[in-house]
Amino acid sequence: MNRNTVPAYDMIRLTIADDVATLTWARPVRLNAITEPMFAEASDALKQVVAHGARALVITGEGRAFCAGADLQDEPPADVGQALEDSFNPFIEQLFALPVPVITAVNGAAAGAGCALALAADIIIAARSAYFLLAFVNIGLVPDVGATWLLPRLVGRARAAELMMLGEKLSAEKAESWGLINRVVADDEVVSQAQALAARFARGPTQAYRLMRANLLASETQTLSQTLLAERLAQREAGATSDFMEGVAAFRERRLARFTGR
């Protein structure tokens, strides 16, 4: 088994094995509430994911929650928006820019910024007992960490407004029926199913996944003509990879492709 040595962190854990990276929010006594130093560790962890050549990333939480959002125990800063600018926003942009598929295994509460983090993945798998909560309105703030951008694109403006303005819990099963998440599974299977899917991605055409992620993100603001151009350029790049040649060979030989990610 291939296991990569990665730095030890105080508030998160990062493991990389068999080309799958797993980032775990690890402040269970605070329901994995986020602090700026925690985001600094997570940002470094994403750099490690790339540096070690991982081909898929799973994000989950330790204990009873995925992430309870920003930690409100400390005195709030005079400029709450500055904390977003300094830590939260750079991390979410870094996450979207990763060149590999991202899966979130939502093992409990995903609240506030934690809700946005849970939804900022390609595939979202939730435990049956998990729930999603944009609680900002309950403390007089507005959704952040990209929630205002993500939600209308996932569920439409009306349901996004309901989630943001009412600040009520959304169960995992209802989130699945809305199309907000991909799958609901038994509580004790959420991480294992996310890991199994990540392992499948790690055996796949990594460069094609990278281009898919970039095109999906860009398409949100592009015209049809711009998207067609982006697809042409991405297809040119994908067509020059070894994995494309292997995929064609496997198709002709009626066997499973053995992709290397190159």
Task: Please give a structural write-up.
- The chain is 46% helix and 17% strand.
- The protein has 262 residues and is α/β, with parallel strands linked by helices.
- It has two domains: 3-202, 2-enoyl-CoA Hydratase, Chain A, domain 1; 206-253, Lyase 2-enoyl-coa Hydratase, Chain  A, domain 2 (Orthogonal Bundle).
- The strands form two sheets. Strands 1-2-3-4-6-8-11 form a seven-stranded mixed sheet, sandwiched between helices.
- The protein is globular.
List the helices and strands and how they pair.
Layout: E1 3-4, E2 12-17, E3 20-25, H1 36-51, E4 56-61, E5 65-67, H2 80-96, E6 102-106, E7 109-111, H3 113-119, E8 123-127, E9 131-133, H4 147-155, H5 157-166, E10 170-171, H6 172-178, E11 183-185, H7 190-202, H8 206-219, H9 224-239, H10 242-253
Parallel strand pairs: 3-4, 4-6, 5-7, 6-8, 7-9, 8-11
Antiparallel strand pairs: 1-2, 2-3, 9-10
Structural class: alpha/beta
Biggest sheet features: 7 strands, mixed
Low-confidence stretches: none
Looking across the biggest beta sheet, what order are the strands in? 1-2-3-4-6-8-11
Tally of distinct domains:
2
- CATH class category name of the largest domain: Alpha Beta
Compute the number of helices: 10
Beta strand count: 11
Rg estimate, integer Å: 19 Å
- SSE arrangement, N to C: EEEHEEHEEHEEHHEHEHHHH
Features:
262 residues, Lyase 2-enoyl-coa Hydratase, Chain  A, domain 2, alpha/beta, 2-enoyl-CoA Hydratase, Chain A, domain 1, 10 helices, seven-stranded mixed beta sheet, single chain, 11 strands, 17% strand, 2 domains, four-stranded mixed beta sheet
